[in-house]
Amino acid sequence: MYEYIKGTITFIGPEYIVVETNGIGYLLLTPNPFAFSKYEQTNVTVYVYHHVREDTQLLFGFMTSEEKRLFEKLISVSGIGPKGALAVLASGEPSHVVGAIDREDEAYLIKFPGIGKKTARQMILDLKGKLDEVMPDHLSGLFQPEKVQSAAPSNAELEEALLALEALGYSAREIKRISGRLEKEEAMSTDEYIRKGLQLLLG
User: Fold this and answer.
1) Contacts 24+ apart (CB under 8 A), 141-146
2) Per the count of CB atoms within 10 A, which of 3, 24, 114, 117 is most buried?
3) Would you kindly state where each structural domain of the chain is located, as residue ranges?
4) Which CATH number is 4-62 given?
5) pLDDT per residue as tens digits for the range 28-48
């Protein structure tokens, strides 16, 4: 129904962003809301997927059309819902996901929250060899937003990052396991903490 929304980002939180256009604020669930930090209060184009069920209607936002197409491919797999697909995309390394599917690497895929062996096998059966159209090699860099340097990084950024990881479906135990290692890192932006946390969780 919607392809994209052009407007101003007026809010960024652990689970979603708000894009205002023509006086209307659209709540968009995104893989990593803090990846949009450098665009806050500026005009942006956010690619949108409209998810409709009997009991709810949700809008999902993506930085590129390729990211949106990969999301659509993921939710077409039985056993993967929108939240599961967001967690996969939030890793910031969709090329690794595509590679794991093509290699039939179930061990890598089951590290994402909500994806067990049965779902990982279904992902491979449904998507192997079918993702080049949405993410050819020369487009893989589009899924790596530029790093955002905070003027005064603090533990607030780390706290926001941990909340974002929780929103993606990682358990308190999993987050606690990596939080100590993140605290020892040099000060980073929220987006960078999220990406580092996901690297540790998927490592």
Assistant:
1) 142/63, 142/64, 142/66, 142/67, 143/63, 143/64, 143/66, 143/67, 143/89, 143/92, 143/93, 143/94, 143/95, 144/92, 145/35, 145/38, 145/63, 145/92, 145/191, 146/38
2) 114
3) 4-62, 65-143, 155-202
4) 2.40.50.140
5) 999 989 889 888 888 899 999
